[in-house]
Design brief:
alpha/beta, Spermidine Synthase, Chain: A, domain 2, Rossmann fold, 2 domains, seven-stranded mixed beta sheet, globular, binds 1-{4-[(3-aminopropyl)amino]butyl}guanidine
């Protein structure tokens, strides 16, 4: 059967994908999960009617949300990923030899298990890396509890690899969550977030920017176009108390990328620096 998957994220506009073959479709207990095959994008995973990741273009999203903060920081040892059940973010974080441990807190075990089974090319062995610590728990509660403990872990980079602000991921867009993330950061640390497609989700951009601006010395965005995330450039949230990290030039980043031995498919030092240049319609949302 080759039906169409129609995305239900936006009320008045959307996209559809031909399902060449449905590999899996069920409720995980928390979310409605479907994995199908498409001739353009390869295997695609959707949760609650929204495309989450696709073999064909996951590299753009995952490289940007991992390499930009890690190379801007420059000496990252500990990373926390909130969400990210497919393992693509985990894999990109582990590509950095300076990284000693990546803690990934995913609320839905079903997403991890089904991604490992049906989308193994995305995590590419990352779940078996000895530096991986996988925690199946509510990420919001995890950061609150970790922050409250004086002996709790502190991270150089926190990456929020979440769904959109509907369903179980909605709490990951609140002020309380961002405040707890800040308390989990080591000095000079960076928080980055999946922040939606601002052409279609303008209010999300404004609200989350305001919430983080109230907490961090520097709050902004960087951007990349991810074809599976319909509507143009996706925004990634950036928050840090170190205002210098966002201003690094390609020439500062290039030796770090070389030293790490990365061989990305989208990310380059020039893309890194340029991704912080925001179009006027986005700047206007930050007012
Ligand atoms: N989760 C981000 C999906 C965002 C889709 N949103 C949208 N199109 N506005 C990605 C999980 C990949 N690890």
């Amino acid at each position: 059967m080759s039906g169409w998957f129609e995305e239900t994220l936006h009320p008045d506009i959307g996209q559809r994908f031909r399902m060449e073959r449905v590999l899996y479709r069920d409720r995980t207990g928390l979310q409605d999960l479907v994995i199908f095959e498409n001739r353009v994008l390869g295997r695609v995973m959707a949760l609650d009617g929204v495309i989450q990741t696709a073999e064909g273009d996951e590299f753009i999203y995952h490289e940007m949300l991992a390499h930009v903060p890690i190379l801007a920081h420059g000496r990252v040892r500990r990373v926390l990923i909130v969400g990210g059940g497919d393992g693509g973010m985990l894999r990109r974080c582990l590509e950095h030899p300076s990284v000693e441990r990546v803690t990934m807190v995913e609320i839905d075990r079903g997403v991890v298990d089904l991604s490992r089974e049906y989308l193994p090319s995305i995590s590419a062995g990352a779940f078996d890396d000895p530096r991986t610590e996988l925690v199946i728990a509510d990420g919001c509660r995890y950061v609150a509890e970790t922050a409250d403990r004086s002996d709790g872990d502190r991270f150089d980079v926190v990456i929020v690899d979440s769904t959109d602000p509907h369903g179980p991921g909605a709490v990951l867009f609140t002020s309380a969550f961002y405040a707890d993330c800040k308390r989990c950061l080591a000095p000079g640390g960076v928080l980055v977030t999946q922040n939606g497609v601002p052409f279609l989700q303008p209010d999300e951009l404004t609200q989350t920017w305001r919430r983080r601006k109230a907490l961090f010395a520097d709050s902004s965005f960087f951007m990349a176009p991810v074809p599976s995330y319909y509507g143009g450039f996706m925004a990634f949230g950036w928050a840090s108390d170190d205002e210098g990290l966002r201003a690094l030039a390609a020439a500062d980043i290039a030796p770090r990328m070389a030293a790490a031995g990365l061989r990305p498919r989208y990310y380059t030092p020039e893309i890194h620096a340029g991704s912080f240049a925001l179009p006027q319609y986005v700047l206007s949302l930050m007012a």
